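Mods, move this if it's the wrong board.
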Amino acid sequence: MRHWNGRLVAARVFAWLCAIGLVGAFAIAATLPLDMNLGAMLLSMDPKSLEGLHQFVLHHGLAGSWKHVLLPFLLRPGWMLPLMAGLVAGGIAFSLNHVGPTRQSTRRSR
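Not the wrong board. Structure tokens:
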């Protein structure tokens, strides 16, 4: 039976998330206008989505979370969110794959 290394599995999962995010960002940028923000993109998919998201955040979130957290993301280009998520996932995958410096013996051969 093969022993599964948790770090290796997590690194592969994050590498896949990185690939999905980067390909998704490219697909959005290639098919939609580059200046279309995330809010307009959500409105074009479902006209009631932003209203529902706003009501959910007001009901379940902190008082300023809509204005200070979500609204800046909704004003960014639609391709930027999957790009940022892909880059973060890629950094995590790289960090999990990176083996620290090996400890070399201080003993000298004669």
